[in-house]
Amino acid sequence: MVSEVRYFQASARGNGVGVTILKHTHPQPGAVHTLVIHVLPKLWCKQWVSAEQPEVIAPFNVKIAPEAGGQFSSVQDPESSLYEHSDDGTLSLYVYETEILVLPKPWAGYLETVSGSALPPHDDDNEGGASDPLWTALEYPEKPVYAVAATVCGRVLGPATARENMDFSAGGQGTGWQKVSLLWRMLAEHHEEQAIIQGHRDITPQGSELFPHIPSLKEAMYRVFVDSSGQALAHRRPVFEPEVDELLFVRGRMLPRELVNRRINRRIGVVCEFDSLTTDTHLWQMIRAGLQQVATHAADNEVVDDALGYESVLRDVSTQNIRSLLTETLSPAFAMRLSAQTLRAYHYAQSILSQQYGFGLSDSPYEAGVLANIKFDTSSLWRKMLVRALTDTGLEVRVESPVGMLYHRNAEGRQQGVAFAKPDMMLYSRGILVATLDGRYTTYCEDLMQRSEHERYRMLAVAYRTGADGYTAYPVAGNGTLGRILTVGEPGTYPQAPMSAEHHVTTCGVRFPQPEDGRTTADASHLAKVLRKVPAEPS
Predict the structure, then answer these.
(1) Handedness of CA 452, 456, 457, 459 (dihedral sign)
(2) pTM higher than 0.90 for the full model?
């Protein structure tokens, strides 16, 4: 059997990590029906040099057709995997940023729905990470480096219980699961938010069934649920609920059967059925129980705090037995009247409780297609890492403080700024500005002269205006380094050589957290030693 294949590049510009989950509803017996693809930082790939020659990863039984010039062209069995997968048909694998994934039908068709065909333009001041899609569909790899089966098979993840001590990093340090776990810890500790991109898909409520195979997704789902609950609270309104109670007066409709019992038992009260305006409904009981669950089990302190805050707003809602909650459902008519945020929060709460207590999960299979497609901007993550790393060294870090570059006199005769530069960070030691720093999540360049003219002149202008050294920090897998130091020319000395060497611009490499370290923060200690050299305070 021959089937068409398609190519997809993960984070084509090398600025996004995340996870994509695909579901196929008509698998062959014993075949893969859930494909989980983790996109990891390129700094964790020992073979990664640049995006010029990305590796091609083929998780299914793809063959190379000689007549196609050595390109991957078909699969012998679209349901046949090169890897052992879990008993429930879940196959987890990982790729690194800029790598190319080759998929046969139907998986390719699902991934195409959330992929871009071309990268959006971006300027030199914006690496584009916040807007780039996680996947870019390719006609064919332009400069592929084909992976052999032994290398490809090193990318499988799972089941973790049976393979947790095996190295799936294709020559790197640490297991694949360790890498996935470290990534989600990094994202949580630096409070990196999901990037809203083309093809974004939150984890569906049904995705909780994958928690045993992908524990890290639980934290991501907790965040989505808590955010949905916060939005739902804005639409909270009391509703009329049917109620039956014994009263001393008639309200609503008397129940005939109870009237007979009243006469026999000689009771004074009358059992009535009536509508009561209340906020204590099954809907909010479920959401409150879900928030209590998240507040108890979430690892992210910010998520816990938000869950507790929203749960406190629902103190007028009674707590019910979880089993009773999960056996009750919303009526279709009532659900149609709810806001999208409220209904979403309810389904997430239902799913979280069902997974935790082991019952109440939907028996119906979820639909084929994309269950989740979540991306995080690694350019943003890298800048947050630098802020944390430099702050930990004792430096004061001010983020994106505007530096006035050009001014004019307004109608009142006052000077007014009309052009500003915003370095990513302005670094202070003992209250004195010692340097400005920009973070770039790209290939390390030791010589600033090899960077774009725009970037050099921007750093020069900021150095002139602030009177401080200028740095551009790049992530590296090894030890931190300093690049070639360039002296800022003294104003008014042209065409002579600069007479002062007090201010410099340069690049530097800062160690990106590595799986073998177990750290979630960058190491900027070498940079801090240089930046602490502060000029003497005036007497």
Answers:
(1) positive
(2) no
pLDDT > 90: what percent of the chain?
A: 16
Q: How far apart are CA 501 and CA 494, in angstroms?
A: 15
Q: Domain residue spans in the chain?
A: 1-202+367-377, 205-237+279-365, 239-278, 393-531
Q: Which of 294, 292, 339, 282 is nearest to 312 (CA)?
A: 292
CA 213 from centre of chain: 18
- Residue 382, class by beta-carbon neighbours within 10 Å (0-12 exposed, 13-18 middle, 19+ buried)? buried
The kind and range of the H/E element at 90 are: strand 90-96
Q: How far apart are alpha carbons 208 and 157 in whole angstroms? A: 18
Query: What are the residues whose beta carbons fall under 8 Å from the beta carbon of 434, sequence distance 6 or more?
Result: 395, 427, 428, 468, 469, 531, 532, 533, 534
> Three-state SS across 434-497?
EEEEEECCCCCCCCHHHCCHHHHHHHHHHHHHHCCEEEEEEEECCCCEECCCEECCCCCCCCCC
Give DSSP secondary structure letters for 256-276: HHHHHHHHHHT-SSEEEEEEE
Question: 365 burial class (0-12, 13-18, 19+ CB within 10 angstroms)?
Answer: exposed
Higher pLDDT, 373 or 277: 373
Most confident by average pLDDT, 49-58, 99-108, 258-267, 374-383: 374-383
SS3 sequence of 209-250: HHCCCCCHHHHHHHHHHHHHHHHHHCCCCCEEEEEEEEECCC
pLDDT digits 0-9 by tens, 192-209: 888 888 888 877 666 666
- DSSP helix/strand/coil, 378: helix
Torsion angle, CA of 243/244/246/247, rounded to 10 degrees?
40
Please report, for residues 127, 219, 533, the alpha-carbon distance to residue 189 in angstroms, rounded to integers and kept in the order given. Answer: 23, 12, 30
